[in-house]
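so i finally got all the pieces together for this one. its two components total, 682 residues if u count the protein bits. some of the lines might not be protein, just check the labels. i wanna see the whole assembly predicted at once instead of chain by chain like last time, that was a mess tbh
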Amino acid sequence: MTGDHQALALLLFSGFVAVTLGITTWVSRRRRGSAEEFYAGGRLFTPMENGFAIAGDYMSAASFLGISGLIALYGYDGLLYGVGFLVAWLVVLFLVAELVRNCGRFTLADVVAARMSERPVRIAAGTSSVVVSVLYLVAQMVGAGSLVALLLGRTSGAAQVWAVIGVGALMVIYVSLGGMRATTWIQIVKAVLLLGGTVVLTVLVLVRFHGDVDRLLLTAAERSGHGRAFLAPGLKYGGDWTARLDFISLGLALVLGTAGLPHILSRFYTVPTARAARRSVVWSIGLIGSFYLMTIVLGFGAAALVGPQAVRASNAAGNTAVPLLALDVGGGAGSTGGTVLFAVVAAVAFATILAVVAGITLASSASVAHDLYASLRRPRGGAPRGEVAVARWAAVGVGVVAIALGLLARDLNVAFLVGLAFAVAASANLPALLYSLFWRGFTTRGAVWAVYGGLVPAIGLVLLSPVVSGSPDSLFPGVDFQYFPLENPGVVSIPLGFLAGWLGTVTSDEVADEGRYAETEVRSLTGAGAA
Amino acid sequence: MTYEDPWYDALASGWGGLDGTGRPAVAVPPARGEPDAAGTRARDVYVEVQRSQAFQEVRGRYRRFVVPGTAAFLVWYVGYVVAATTAPGLMARPVAGAVNVAMVAGLGQFLTTFLLTWAYSRHARLRRDRAALDLRWDTQELARGAQGGAL
């Protein structure tokens, strides 16, 4: 990779940063400082804008680079990720989006706490939201660090450290100055750039094969050295039964976790009605589905045109498959087309990380200020203006924590961290959310148990898993306290979360308040009194 | 009335929004209200609406679509993941050219997701939206009445 690529990539990326900082300044100039404005962008985005923003929040660099890289290396098994990430949106559309829009104001905890004795539930839901956000954030930061190092060709530790610090500082500026309105526009700009770049690459790959997908697949299979097995599942997850169960666990976490991700839930509050929330999800399903279909073409294209050997030589996890493919379809190394396309892909990948990170930071600062601070410090509530100031500082705090953890966790696998965040969201947030929306008899104790009953096992099982100890690749290879064989805890912790919520409810003395449930049900389905 | 009217969304966004002093405007009591008399009366309104024929109908239509729909796509997805991990032989069986069972199933997941999205949104638009909107205004009228018309 020559200096030309890097200079052009840096130039394009600086352009993106300049434009987004411009948006932030322009937005914050007119800000009114209300909670409605900071957390929900004034609730006046259109479904199309919000659909693009949701897609922008969801399509991380891990999917853009990670999934196509996995396909380039392992063929069909990489595709399983994309399917899980997409099908998850049906859970969101059917069970969550409209009802959450109608019942809550800013956060997940609003919905769960509405029926319950407020403080313990809000603290529980706020805590788990922050944990999920920080895990997801660390994954993105680690990704940013390795991406910079890979794409700019500087593999020194210093470049990674500065990339993580730079991304963290920028996201704090976006979020604490611009709030939800700036964050949303950044997501929209990024989604358009990412989809545009993906469309161009996909078309170029298909043109190379004269539109013959069959030949693309056969060439990929042949070049991979695995033959037809490359086009069927089993190359990555087909080992022993532990590996297979691990993948089923990951599949469950992916499909159930999306509906519990705080930064996705908070996006539904940026539109005026439940109907608009539904239409934004329909937009985002269309965009996300097309995006994953195109990453499949890019993945097999990279296998066919670049070859798994060359991909693996550049990055063992396959993360550089798409940039290498861009170089190839643009005309090869040294050509103008190749240089430009490579730079565009690199800049889009940076922009992606930056935007996703900003969205998560905003959601977690909302949880800290609106749920934790408001419950712990001022149980009687207070002026929203004070809460917004706390949220701005919380964004700084979350940024610092994420930078620190991102630097510590530099060597962890990004896909593993993302899978873990999804597993925690599915175990801790989803049971409490679904029970409080649909179960008449659900009580305060049930809600608190559902959150902690999913959160504690999910985190605990990871600590006891081979990721942390007991194998050569773990965080602490020297010690061995590995008692749980799977890397992803979902298959155990998600049922435990649901079970704990049920157990807490049936053992509590409290009788669920009919009137409050009636209120939740009527509000959730009609939108009466919605903020 | 058509739902594409811009005033519909704009008006709806005003409900329960912040008034000039930063307090929530009192359209309907907040969900976590204190157990005072007005709050209890407002909650009676919700119980009343919940028991009404019109609301039961909306809820029934929603559940009759969502419960079987969710069960169907979850079974189809879990079946796909389990088949991909436990029966690679079946999944590798060729169908046409380079396309095998696994490819058909994977693309089928994409296709069913798009189809269910379309079906859900059509069902909600035609069978639920109008009735839910009527209920929304009625409930808010009743709730305001229960609060002694305080605004």
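The two ends of chain A are 52 Å apart (CA to CA).
Chain A has a mean pLDDT of 85.
anyway lmk what u think
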